[in-house]
TrEMBL record:
Tripartite ATP-independent periplasmic transporters DctQ component domain residues: 19-152
Chief location bin: membrane
Protein name in UniProt: DctQ7: putative TRAP dicarboxylate transporter
Species of provenance: Desulfobacula toluolica (strain DSM 7467 / Tol2)
Any single biological process term in GO: C4-dicarboxylate transport
């Protein structure tokens, strides 16, 4: 997952850079020629969505998602670990349902070749929906990896505390 997350993080950065260049081109075009680039705003919105969805998994890998530590910091370590496991199980379930629904929406969008309404230039929506599905799926996998890591760490700490200490007779 580390390689995939690195690629997704890099792709998100590239997309944000492309958005920046498109905004500069749009503003420059309006300033110098008095007209806008057709479909620029729509493309920027799709790039923004792509950057966000592709960033879920790398953010989870680095444990950078927003957490409220106010209460958890004061809890005993075992109880905090138990709560973390419950939160991850819930997150896996929620993200699995979201991934499934986004996948169905992506298939529907692909089958009708959906485009953004109202733009003079036909901007397809299904690539953004495909990226959303890929991003959520990677997020789902990363949540599973994080959950397995927490459980594995908990089991190791429990097995180390249960081992009888060996005493030497001197």
């Amino acid at each position: 997952m580390k390689i995939v997350n690195k690629m997704f993080g890099s792709a998100g950065g590239i997309l944000i850079g492309a958005m920046m260049l498109l905004v500069v081109a749009e503003v420059s075009n309006r300033l110098f020629w008095g007209s806008s680039i057709e479909g620029a705003i729509e493309i920027e919105g799709i790039f923004l969505a792509l950057a966000i969805f592709l960033g879920f998994s790398p953010c989870e890998e680095e444990k950078k998602h927003v957490r409220v530590e106010l209460v958890a910091a004061r809890l005993p370590k075992k109880f905090k670990t138990f709560l973390d496991i419950i939160v991850y199980i819930t997150a896996v379930g929620v993200v699995a349902v979201i991934t499934w629904q986004v996948g169905l929406d992506m298939i529907s969008s692909w089958s009708i070749r959906e485009t953004l309404p109202g733009a003079k230039v036909q901007v397809p929506v299904y690539p953004a929906k495909a990226a959303a599905f890929i991003g959520y799926f990677a997020f789902f996998i990363q949540l599973m990896v994080s959950l397995a890591s927490i459980i594995r760490t908990q089991r190791r700490s429990e097995s180390q505390t249960m081992r009888p200490s060996k005493k030497r007779n001197l």
